[in-house]
Structure formats: C-alpha cells, structure tokens
Amino acid sequence: MKFRLYFLLLIASIFLFIFSHTTANTSNFTINLESTFFVMTLTHFYRALAILLLTVSLLYIVKDVSKVKIKPIYERLHVFGTIVLVITLLYLNNENNVLKTRSNISDEKLNFYNHGLELILISLILFQFLFLMNTFAVQVKQVLTSSKQ
C-alpha cells in the first residue's frame, strides 16, 4: 500500500492514545472561555485529541475509497495544519501547566497562554469543519458535472 499523507494523522492519533496512558491523572487541561472554566484531566484530553485525529484520518480513508478527488495542496495544508495546531496546543498547555506551579508569575502571562489555548483549540475545530466543507463541495461539484454530461 502506498504511503498517504493522512497516515501521519493516524500515526499521531496512535501516539497520543499511547501517550495518554503514560500521563498522570493529577495534571489538568484548563481553559477559561469568558467566565467559564473547562477542566479535564490530561489523560482524557489526549484521548479526545487522539479520537479527533483518528476520525479525520478515517474520513480521509473513506474519501480515498469513494474516489473523491481533492486538490493535493488542500490535503497537504489540512494534514500539516492539523498536526501543527495539535503540537502547538500541546506545547501551550504544557507551558500553561508549568507556569501555574510557579508563584511569581503574573496573571497577564497566564492569560496570554490561556488565550493562546483558546485560539488554537477553536482554530483546530474550525480547520476540521473547513476540511468537511471542502470535501462536500468537491462531491457536489462532481455530481453536478456528471449530471450535465
């Protein structure tokens, strides 16, 4: 079988799932959206990211089986963009947790990392919706061109 670019998402999801079993349940992923705090253990956060990446890679497999053609530049942009956003999200979360353990850190610096986490998480979710919309638009375009012939 030829190596496809979306296999990177599959590999990343397997890595995150394995990594989720090695983290302690004492660490939390905390994000503050406006006045609401969302808190979950890092184990569950890594598993949720793994499920997201696994779902996207399965959508790519379905796309290949159904022979939906997407421009390769969009596929590369989506896969690499998703991986970069996940790595950035994990890095910012780690930095945020490290900063919380220090006593002399200002609230402004914590807010900076918290807003970064918000933006990256929202961007990651919107990036997946853009992929789905692009796939749907290509499918509709194929149906319309085949009905005209």
UniProtKB/TrEMBL annotation:
Keyword Membrane tagged: yes
Transmembrane segments annotated in the record for this chain: 36-61, 73-92, 112-132
Protein keywords: Membrane, Transmembrane, Transmembrane helix
Recorded superkingdom: Bacteria
The protein's name in its UniProt record: Uncharacterized protein
Organism: Flavobacterium aciduliphilum
